[in-house]
Amino acid sequence: MMYDPWKNYGGKSDEVLLHGTAVVVSGNGLLILGPSGAGKSYLAIEMLALGADLISDDRVKLRNGASGLMLHAAEPLAGCIEARGLGIISCPIKTCVPLKYCLDLSLMNEARLPFAKEVTKLGHRISVLPGGPAVPQAAALVLLIKNGFADYE
């Protein structure tokens, strides 16, 4: 079966439950999608070490909010992150964070400056950045979430 990053794993009618990991930097959320073993948790742990906060690991809820899509932790996994080869680590979480960016580790793009793909969920357009074949560095992602893309021609 082909991997579908946007498969809804049983969310209610007003939410989407995704297989992914989410972190927050400066009040803005990053949703990391990808198949099992792609490195979602690994990338999140690197970002946590650089000052990001965890929203949720392995399962993330998307819900409508007043200003757009919001990221929420999914029970019963809230407050935990998996460090492959080490175990499940307890981690404080943030929740109800606005989605700023989405990175899909299964989406490949060979361009030096790749373009985002757009999807629509719960009536909102989401820009999805390709995460492969070279996964962006955690430090670069922290800077992106803090500062956004440059207006560069």
Describe this structure in words.
The protein has 153 residues and is mainly beta. The protein has a single domain, classed as P-loop containing nucleotide triphosphate hydrolases (Rossmann fold, 3-Layer(aba) Sandwich), CATH 3.40.50. It is 13% helix and 44% strand. The protein has two helices and ten strands; from the N terminus they run E-E-H-E-E-E-E-E-E-E-E-H. Strands 1-2-8-5-4 form a five-stranded mixed beta barrel. Strands 6-7 form a two-stranded antiparallel sheet. The longest helix has 10 residues. The model has no long low-confidence stretch (mean pLDDT 91).
Strand and helix layout:
Blueprint: E1 15-25, E2 28-33, H1 40-49, E3 53-56, E4 59-65, E5 68-73, E6 80-83, E7 87-90, E8 97-108, E9 117-121, E10 124-132, H2 138-147
Parallel strand pairs: 2-8, 8-10
Antiparallel strand pairs: 1-2, 1-3, 1-4, 4-5, 5-8, 6-7, 9-10
Helix pairs in contact: 1-2
